[in-house]
Structures are given as C-alpha cells and as structure tokens.
Amino acid sequence: MEDREVLVGGVNRVVREGGVVRRPAGPWSGTVQRLLAHLREAGFTGAPRPYGLSGDGAEEIVEYLPGGVGHDFGAPEVRSDASLVAAARLLRGFHDAGTGFLREPGDVWQLPPREPAEVICHGDAATYNTVFRDQLPVAFIDFDTAHPGPRLWDAAYTAYRFVPLYAPDEVAHTLPVPEAARRLTLFADSYGLSHDERTRLPATAAERLRSLVDWMRDQAAAGHPAFARHLAEGHDRRYLTDARWIEDTFA
C-alpha cells in the first residue's frame, strides 16, 4: 500500500493507512472505543473517530487526524501563549464532553480510576499527543491511558508539559520562574480552574509525576520493553527531579 506510514510513538508501533490509524489493541481498547464514540456524539471534535477493532482483535482502528504532532518541545508553535491557551481549552472541552459517558461494569482502563471520578481523564494529554494545525492544538490522540479521575489530576500533567514545569537542569526547555508562573496562571485561567484547584495545582503536578514513575517502573518490571527503555534513558529521574522542583518552587 503506497499511502502508508509508520508514525512516531513512544510506546507503540502505530501505522497510518490512508485515513485511518492502526494501533496495537489492549484490554482497555473496547472501553476507549466507546469513549471516543461518546465524545463524537457529544460534539467534541478534538479526538479521532473510532472505527472498532480488527477482525482478530489485535488492532484498534481510529481516524487519522492530519496535522503536526508536538514532539519538538522547543518548537515555537508548541511554546507560544496561544498554544497554551488552546491546549487548556481543548482539555476543558474534552473533560466537559466526557461527563456524560456512561460507565459499564465491564469497562477496563489501563490506568486505575482515581477518586473523585469527576471526568474521564486523558492520562497523557501532552504536546506529543496533541495534533497542531496552523500552529495551534486542535486535537488529542492516543487515549490508551484514559481513565476516570479528577479534572485537576489531568490538568496538572497537561500544565507540566505545556507550560512547561521543568527544573532548571533541563536547560534546553526550562523557563525562568517568573515566566513559568505567568504561564501556569494563563493555563489555569484558560481551563477555568477554581481558586481551590489553582492552589492545589503544583502539588498535584508533583504527585502526578511520582505516580507516573511508579507506574513506569511497574510496567518495566512486568517486562514491557518500551518502559524498560524509558527507565534506562532516565525518564524516571527526570520526572522525580521536576516533581521536587515544582514543590520547592510553586507549592
């Protein structure tokens, strides 16, 4: 097939064939397909349409959303104020659209549900899972890590990635503290966080990163090669360093 390409992914091998994307299916893929269908029915266009599972159940099939993905953390379109505002509003739209999702007893989630289960969290709404068009975020992709949880739990990780909230030793992408604080406020304003949520945002971001490290280590110990590679590359140390810096600086 000529119109075919392997897309960049940090965990899975993902293939585009024409207007669809084929992804490895997991036990949670049926639930994710239901979620994507609900989002579309609710009028949310910032996620791919679901097209079910392959005949053998090995692949999940979703719509291909044209545009660029924010793999380059330093790209101007990824770091602009306009992108930060658009990402926060996109996340808010996703959360609001998902509030009517009817959970079923047989639902499976890759990440454990977290109380209070106010919304369905994306779980990894970062720049590298965001489609950009005309230099602005227009959609999220890769919903494998979707799970019920608090709005703030999801928003904290998106803020970490889009502000970004990286410690000063991450010299290529860190920001001066006043600029990071300004952009964090801009994100909170654009999402519409309450006063209480704003107060808890930094500590929640740090907690979210530590939870991510625990999960990565569990996955690596279970034999998942991608997460073993991430640990070998020091991703866990990066997140723990950033968590400490966020707490010391903003919490």
Note down, in words, how this protein is organized.
With 251 residues, the chain is α+β, with helices and mostly antiparallel strands. The chain has eight helices and ten strands. The protein has helices spanning 29-41, 76-79, 81-98, 151-162, 177-191, 195-221, 225-232, 235-250, and strands at residues 4-7, 14-17, 20-24, 50-53, 59-63, 68-69, 119-121, 130-133, 136-140, 147-149. A five-stranded antiparallel β-sheet has the order 1-2-3-5-4, covered by helices on one side. Strands 6-8-9 form a three-stranded antiparallel β-sheet. Strand 8 and strand 9 (136-140) form a beta hairpin. Helix 6 (195-221) packs across helix 7. It is globular and about 50 Å long.
Question: Helices, strands, pairings?
Answer:
Blueprint lengths: L3 E4 L6 E4 L2 E5 L4 H13 L8 E4 L5 E5 L4 E2 L6 H4 L1 H18 L20 E3 L8 E4 L2 E5 L6 E3 L1 H12 L14 H15 L3 H27 L3 H8 L2 H16 L1
Antiparallel strand pairs: 1-2, 2-3, 3-5, 4-5, 6-8, 7-10, 8-9
Helix pairs in contact: 3-4, 3-5, 4-6, 6-7, 6-8
Keyword list:
alpha+beta, Transferase(Phosphotransferase), domain 1, 3-stranded antiparallel beta sheet, 8 helices, 45% helix, globular
Total of helices = 8
The biggest beta sheet, please?
A: 5 strands, antiparallel
Mean pLDDT: 95
- Following the backbone from N to C, one meets helices and strands in this order, namely EEEHEEEHHEEEEHHHHH
- Fraction in beta strands: 15-25%
Number of strands: 10
